[in-house]
Design brief:
- This protein has a domain at about 5-155 and about 185-215 and about 270-275: 3-Layer(aba) Sandwich (Rossmann fold).
- Helix content is about 45%, strand content about 20%.
- It is built from ten helices and ten strands.
- Strand 1 (about 50-55), helix 4 (about 60-70) and strand 2 (about 75-80) form a beta-alpha-beta unit.
- Helix 3 (about 35-45) runs parallel beside helix 4 (about 60-70).
- The longest helix has 21 residues, at about 215-235.
- The protein starts with a helix and ends with a strand.
- S-adenosylmethionine (SAM) binds near residues 84 and 124.
Length: about 280
């Protein structure tokens, strides 16, 4: 692990900041695009709206938001990782979506979210990683303009499995869950969103949405493999696996992906919740 990579991981975010991880995030975002589009369709936003994508990563949801708000709207992406934000803006501007902008900011900082208020505040796969998730959620809600919406989508990892079970998938899953847990992530946060809304003083969500995905192990294993590799430094640092055991687990997973390519693999659930802020 490079020094830059080590210092970036020191902020508690368990996944990496490598080109491979950025590509994995983009591939993952494309998988969930229909699920996110469906939730965005429930709440707007109208042309000209001001939107925030909190923890925007590679900017794939910023693209969806820009398509909805049009050139008169504004889409701000915020992420603690300035490098991924720069790539996101480059991709968006290259595609003609010049209403998109990026600001590097740590959303766990005890200060208002910059750039608000917004007609739509959106966050996907962000709260999962943040031990301060209630405080962050409250700050995101504070950034919503009267009449605007807060929309959150996040994972519940409990469904990740292959049918029938395989020891290689179980072992890779054990390491992934262990590393996320050691970093303070909540791997069931999606199912807890309504509770978190209540704890953050937002109230009962107006709507919820659950999306899933089943894929043959032959192709689904790629995401497991990539998440495992991205989390490996954290897993090693916490003694959850060793270099040798990790290499053996990945080799076994690769063999099983070929031998049992047609076994169905269930992804995490993507769970959404949203709420409109009352007009004053
Ligand atoms: C799993 S990625 C999800 C990216 C994007 N929302 C998506 O769904 O495609 C989580 C993102 O949250 C960002 N992040 C993590 N901790 C953060 C923090 N404290 N403040 C701002 N962004 C953070 C990471 O850098 C990463 O880009």
């Amino acid at each position: 692990m490079s020094t830059t990579e080590a210092s970036r991981r020191a902020n508690g975010y368990a996944l990496g900041h490598t080109p491979q991880e950025y590509e994995r995030l983009r591939a993952q975002a494309r998988v969930w695009e229909p699920a996110t589009a469906r939730v965005l369709d429930q709440v707007g936003p109208p042309p000209g709206a001001r939107c925030l994508d909190a923890g925007c990563g590679p900017g794939e949801t910023m693209r969806l938001l820009a398509q909805r708000v049009g050139p008169a709207g504004r889409v701000l992406g915020i992420d603690a990782d300035a490098s991924i934000g720069a790539l996101a803006v480059q991709m968006l501007h290259g595609g003609g979506q010049r209403q998109c902008d990026f600001q590097a900011h740590d959303l766990t900082a005890d200060e208002p979210v910059p750039g608000g208020p917004f007609d739509l505040v959106y966050a996907r796969l962000l709260l999962f990683h943040l031990p301060q998730r209630v405080a962050v959620l409250a700050r995101l809600w504070d950034a919503v303009a009267p009449g605007g919406h807060l929309v959150v989508q996040d994972y519940d990892l409990r469904t990740v499995s292959v049918l029938p079970d395989l020891a290689s998938v179980d072992e890779v899953g054990r390491v992934i869950m262990g590393a996320f847990g050691a970093a303070g992530a909540d791997v069931q946060v999606g199912a807890r969103l309504a509770q978190l809304f209540a704890q953050a003083g937002i109230g009962v969500p107006e709507g919820t949405d659950v999306s899933g995905r089943v894929e043959p192990l032959g192709t689904g294993t790629v995401m497991l493999d990539c998440v495992f590799r991205s989390l490996l430094p954290v897993a090693l640092a916490h003694g959850i696996t060793s270099e040798d055991a990790a290499a053996a687990a990945l080799a076994e997973l690769g063999r099983d992906a070929t031998r049992f390519a047609d076994r169905p693999m269930l992804w995490p659930l993507m769970i959404g919740a949203w709420k409109r802020r009352a007009w004053r």
